[in-house]
Design a protein that fits this description.
The complex is a heterodimer of chains A (about 850) and B (about 120). In chain A, about 30% of the residues lie in helices and about 20% in strands. Chain A is α/β, with parallel strands linked by helices and about 850 residues long. Chain A folds into four domains: about 1-110 and about 245-310, FAD/NAD(P)-binding domain, CATH 3.50.50; about 125-245, FAD/NAD(P)-binding domain, CATH 3.50.50; about 320-415, FAD/NAD-linked reductase, C-terminal dimerisation domain (Enolase-like, domain 1, 2-Layer Sandwich); about 560-790, Sulfite Reductase Hemoprotein, domain 1, CATH 3.30.413. Chain B has one domain (about 5-125): Rieske [2Fe-2S] iron-sulphur domain (Rieske Iron-sulfur Protein, 3-layer Sandwich), CATH 2.102.10.10. Chain B is about 5% helix and about 45% strand. The longest helix of chain B is centred in the N-terminal third of the chain and has 4 residues, at about 5. Chain B is globular, with a radius of gyration of 13 Å. Classes of the chains: A alpha/beta (about 850), B mainly beta (about 120). The interface of A and B includes residues 523, 526, 812 and 822 of A. The complex binds siroheme, flavin-adenine dinucleotide, iron/sulfur cluster (SF4) and FE2/S2 (inorganic) cluster. Siroheme binds next to strand 32 of chain A. Chain A: One of its GO terms (molecular function) is NADP binding. Chain A: Keywords: 2Fe-2S, 4Fe-4S, FAD, Flavoprotein, Heme, Iron, Iron-sulfur, Metal-binding, Nitrate assimilation, Oxidoreductase. Chain A: Pfam families: Fer2_BFD, NIR_SIR, NIR_SIR_ferr, Pyr_redox_2, Rubredoxin_C. Chain A: Its cofactor is siroheme; [2Fe-2S] cluster; FAD; [4Fe-4S] cluster.
Chain lengths: ~850, ~120
């Protein structure tokens, strides 16, 4: 039995273990792993997700039991301090000694902290471990409590620095990025693309400072600012340093292994260091005089080291390593692949730039015009996977290569689809999974859907960037095999939402159990199909959420939005945003009476927070007595129709936007749809109501309304598309009735109109044919169905407070009148908030 | 784990010392749940009508330590009866308390019996 000691339990050290235990030779080895961090290896690449939920477990590569189950000794929280190469032993910081046959160094790297005066001050952080993030969160919370507009800067505008900048923004601090170079992401982007990226980032609220050399970190004990030049100071309350990485090669240096001038332990293509019994992999390894700061090459190195140790000495590291990357910031697309900057001697570049739309695309093509050598995408990286594949596999490119990046005029894609890729094309570079492996997993029956492919090939489990491609490939392969691609809503139904809609409509079902027993796959339903079927029955029968409340989504069940601490928010409808002073006073008085936190929402109405279950009906009784009704802020239904003041007051107004907005809001209120619906009505092209960001939007023009459809804010913003021009009120309503009903009949679960419209085969033209030209002969049905829903509207809160049986559900306990004793509120400015989650 | 989570420990049927009469069966929605107070504990009780069984577990969601599980939706995952937390849809087995879609600590489970249309929950103290 040979003993392997792995030093470092990071991403690559873990991958070494994972790959080793899959080998039959593993039975002849014993592995002991030392990790300095207090927990088992976790997914550092997705570290920023920790800000969302502070769930360290969710990031684990494998739980501690995995190591034990596989006969690996994992010793966390213990640093290896010395190697004695003569005796083949190591010593730990706890002064324990262990002997090895093979030693694998996977110590990774640490953030480089430049020797600037003041780096030791309180409030200066690096961004590498969960502990770093915990420290930042605590500090940010403290800052925010002390001052409302605290600022934080990130030192370094590279890939990681920008990610840190986004994290700062998400923590609610004013974000600043300070970069020494004259451009952002200097290693991946050329000057022009970096300028486009800068515009984009500034538009979402990041402040960017280029060409700034930081001389000093100011502050008495804790950070208060950065000094660049004598009169050039940036006030900040917190600083995150992201100025590059330094390999943790202390062990190599101390034991006389060959190290590089700028650090890193030198390895050959077998991942062997200058001592044949010692291997180095991941961010510690200096291969081809380079440190590769990405996981994919590290994983490959882990695989090579495993093969070498078990004796498959022919498996070595390739000389060329792909360094293509995609930035994983939400809402900002940036990618570079192959050779992003290429000297003119090697080929020529084709560049497409549109600064107003924050778009920049560059591809580098060989002189003979046959090969793609690399490129940069900013603003829209949706073609990254495909371009990357063309580059990696040396695939043929169109005669006019500009087609690869120019927006196609006819909407058709200019490169073939995923099925054209060669079998050896590496689709998932993190886990080295090829197209061939994915297709054969389906062909030989190992997997029948995307989830199955992911679990049996591991594709998509790394950075996740390849997931869309894995899904496309899976679906294309299934189709080629003549297998219908399942669109079932969950394990209880193989039917799609659209099919279920038809079935419920035709059979007239009114109970969840009827649908499940007659059309389900067995079982008892779940959190996916229950609310879906509740919503379908509501869309078809005009039921309110009071019907069969136990199948309603948790917010619908209590007709309110659940908040962080299990209390609820209350949002009465304020159609069009128009409200009388008396009603405003009533809202204020009710909020005071029940001690509720109040704020004006982004949907131009007023939200009252912090109501307990028991208070909900009491509050609503008061609201209803003042003429309010449910605002359905909890439902997948119409939210608000936002209006501008329009021609009644505004000197530019062309039409009465408020009056029409109120009419539309009252028409569609309460109707259940696949997702929420929002509208907007602006009185002129200045568009103060942001109508084009809504599911439906109207803008008054000379001669009537322009109607826009399928807009969206949120995570994937999209402007609504112009559908009809200069139409009158009546035509607007006719088209909207048809549009909304058609959407309700055919969309997928939880699909907003924007996503639905985008994927509609035939696009906007088809939609016009259906809605305006009545190509399918259904407009009359659509209008009648909508009119029935409109006629049957009933305020569900009024319904609930007038029915003692329905009221029973609003009690915290069934056997006591007491309130939840676990609730803690803390003061915030002049109001209150729930105690923060720790 | 903090003090409030520690108050909840699974009770096996053999260890029941007290059968606490909680409420009438009609106080619980069919295929849904409600919360019962016992001493300083909050217990979520579910009337799983489709299985003709009753389940009880802690009302405390182990993810964020809020008292909400009784308001969650029930159903099954691959045949295991489960409840989905209303906050972030973490699902837990109602038979073993195990977190079915993550790595959270299991929740505590309590025995339930029905006698003369009354719901009783079993506690060890
Ligand atoms: C209260 C409010 C924020 C505020 O204080 O201003 C809010 C609060 C929530 N929004 Fe919002 N959104 C609010 C206006 C908006 C807006 C602005 C608007 O309506 O013009 C948007 C962008 C416009 C849009 O929807 O296209 C918006 C885009 C979202 C999204 C992203 C939707 C998307 O398609 O990408 C979600 C997530 C979702 O629905 O899946 C979301 C979800 C939520 C949820 C339900 C998150 C949650 O699960 O708890 C929040 C709970 C509401 C509550 O507790 O009452 N909220 N949310 C706003 C309520 C407006 C109202 O009066 O009803
Ligand atoms: C925020 C962030 C985002 C990133 N995003 C991406 C991305 O999108 N794509 C990408 O490819 N890469 C990304 N990376 C880089 C990626 O995380 C690293 O390439 C990868 O983690 C390297 O793995 P490793 O095992 O070599 O090093 P590490 O993961 O750093 O692991 C080394 C481990 O060894 C331990 N250790 C060190 N010395 C000792 C010792 N003497 N004794 C015991 N233990 C020791 C350390 O504590 C550490 O736990 C990102 C990194 C960060 C921080
Ligand atoms: S959109 Fe036109 S009508 Fe409305 S407020 Fe702006 S300028 Fe006035
Ligand atoms: S390429 Fe990163 S997960 Fe597949």
């Amino acid at each position: 039995m040979k003993h392997i000691i792995v030093v470092g339990n990071g991403m690559v050290g873990y991958k070494f273990c994972e790959k080793f235990v899959q080998k039959s030779e593993f039975k002849n080895f014993k592995i002991t792993v030392f990790g300095e961090e207090p927990r088992p290896a976790y997914d550092r690449v997705h570290l920023s997700e920790f800000f969302e939920n502070q769930d360290a477990k969710a990031l684990e590569m494998a739980p501690a039991e995995w190591y034990a189950d596989n006969n690996i000794d994992l010793i966390t929280g213990e640093r290896v301090s010395d190697i004695s190469r003569q005796d083949k032993t190591i010593k730990t910081a706890k002064d324990r000694e262990f002997s090895y046959d093979y030693l694998v160094l996977a110590t990774g790297s640490s953030p480089f902290v430049p020797p600037i005066k003041g780096v030791e001050k309180e409030g200066v952080f690096v961004y590498r471990t969960i502990e770093d993030l915990e420290g930042m969160l605590a500090y940010a919370a403290k800052l925010k409590a002390e001052k409302p507009n605290a600022k934080a800067a990130v030192l370094g505008g590279g890939l990681l620095g920008l990610e840190a900048g986004k994290a700062v923004m998400d923590m609610g601090l004013e974000p600043h990025i300070v970069e020494f170079a004259s451009k952002l992401m200097p290693r991946q982007l050329d000057l022009r693309s970096s300028q486009v990226l800068q515009l984009k980032l500034e538009s979402i609220g990041l402040n960017i400072h280029l060409s700034k050399a930081t001389n000093q970190i100011l502050g008495n004990g804790s950070v208060v600012g950065l000094e660049f030049g004598e009169d050039d100071v940036l006030d900040v309350d917190m600083l995150i340093i992201s100025a590059g990485i330094r390999p943790r090669d202390e062990l190599g240096k101390n034991s006389g292994l060959e190290v590089g001038v700028r650090g890193g332990i030198v390895v050959n293509d077998k991942m062997q260091t200058s001592d044949e019994h010692i291997y180095a992999i991941g961010e510690i390894a200096l291969y081809n005089q380079m440190i590769y700061g990405l996981v994919a090459p590290g994983y490959d190195m882990a695989g090579v080291a495993v093969e070498q140790i078990i004796g498959s000495t022919e498996v070595v590291m390739p000389a060329d390593i792909d360094m293509s990357t995609k930035l994983k910031l939400i809402g900002v697309d940036v990618a570079s692949f192959g050779e992003p900057f290429m000297p003119a001697s090697k080929g020529h570049s084709i560049i497409f730039e549109n600064k107003t739309q924050h778009l920049y695309k560059r591809i580098n093509v060989s002189h003979d015009g046959k090969k793609l050598l690399g490129g940069i995408l900013v603003g829209d990286a949706s073609t990254y996977n495909m371009l990357h594949q063309i580059y990696l596999n040396g695939m043929a490119i169109p005669e006019d290569p500009s087609q690869l990046i120019l927006p196609a005029s006819d909407g058709a894609s200019s490169f073939g689809d995923v099925t054209d890729l060669p079998d050896e094309a590496q689709v998932c570079s993190c886990e080295s999974v090829t197209k061939g492996q994915i297709c054969s997993a389906i062909e030989n029956g190992e997997a029948t859907d995307v989830a199955g492919v992911v679990s049996c090939t591991k594709a998509g489990t790394g950075c996740g960037g390849c997931k869309p491609m894995v899904a496309d490939l899976t679906n294309a392969t299934l189709k080629a095999l003549g297998i219908e691609v399942k669109e079932g809503v969950c394990e209880h139904f193989e039917l799609s939402r659209q099919d279920l809609y038809k079935i419920i409509q035709v059979k007239g079902y009114t109970k969840f159990n009827e649908v499940l027993d007659n059309h389900g796959t067995g079982g008892h339903g779940c959190e996916l199909c229950k609310p879906l079927i509740a919503s379908l029955m509501a869309s078809i029968n005009a039921d309110t959420a009071n019907k069969e409340y136990a199948i309603q989504d948790s917010n619908d069940r209590f007709l309110a939005n659940i908040q962080r601490n299990g209390t609820y928010s209350v949002v009465p409808r304020v159609p069009g945003g128009e409200i009388t002073p008396d009603k405003l006073i009533a809202l204020g008085e009710i909020a005071k009476k029940y001690d509720l936190y109040t704020k004006v929402t982004g949907g131009v109405r007023i939200d009252l927070f912090g109501a307990t279950l028991k208070q909900l009906p009491l509050i609503w009784k008061d609201l209803i007595s003042h003429g309010f009704e449910s605002g359905h802020a909890y439902g997948k239904s119409l939210r608000t129709v936002k209006t501008c003041v329009g021609s009644t007051w505004c000197r530019y107004g062309m039409a009465e936007s408020v009056s029409f907005g109120i009419e539309l809001e009252n028409r569609y209120r309460g109707i259940r749809a696949p997702h929420k619906i929002k509208g907007g009505v602006s009185g002129c092209i200045r568009e103060c109501a942001e109508a084009r960001g809504k599911d439906f939007g109207l803008i008054a023009v000379e001669g009537g309304w322009n109607l826009y459809l399928g807009g969206n804010g949120g995570a994937t913003p999209r402007h609504a598309e112009l559908f009809a021009e200069q139409i009158d009120n009546e035509t607007v309503i006719k088209y909207l009735d048809r549009y909304l009903m058609f959407y309700m009949r055919t969309a997928k679960p939880l699909q907003r109109t924007a996503a639905w419209q985008e994927r509609l085969e035939g696009g906007l033209d088809y939609l016009k044919e259906v809605i305006i030209d009545d190509k399918l002969g259904i407009v009359e049905d659509l209008e009648n169905e909508m009119q029935t829903l409109v006629n049957k509207f009933e305020c569900e809160w009024t319904q609930a407070v007038n029915n003692p049986e329905m009221m029973k559900r609003f009690n915290h306990f069934v056997n006591s009148e007491e309130e939840d004793d676990n609730l803690v509120f803390v003061p915030m400015r002049e109001q209150k908030m729930p105690e923060p989650w720790n | 784990m903090n003090a409030i989570a520690e108050k909840y420990k699974t009770v096996k049927i053999d260890d029941v010392k007290v059968w606490f009469k909680a409420a009438h069966v009609n106080d619980f929605p069919e295929d849904g749940g409600a919360c019962v107070k016992y001493k300083d504990l909050q217990i979520a009780v579910f009337n799983f009508k489709r299985l003709n069984s009753w389940f009880a577990c802690q009302n405390l969601s182990p993810e964020k330590e809020e008292m909400v599980l009784s308001r969650g939706m029930i159903g099954d995952h691959k045949g295991i009866p489960m409840v989905a937390c209303p906050l972030h849809k973490k699902t837990f087995s109602l038979e073993t308390g195990e977190n079915l879609n993550g790595e959270l600590e299991p929740i505590a489970i309590y025995p339930v019996k029905i006698e003369e249309e009354n719901v009783y929950i079993g506690f060890s103290e």
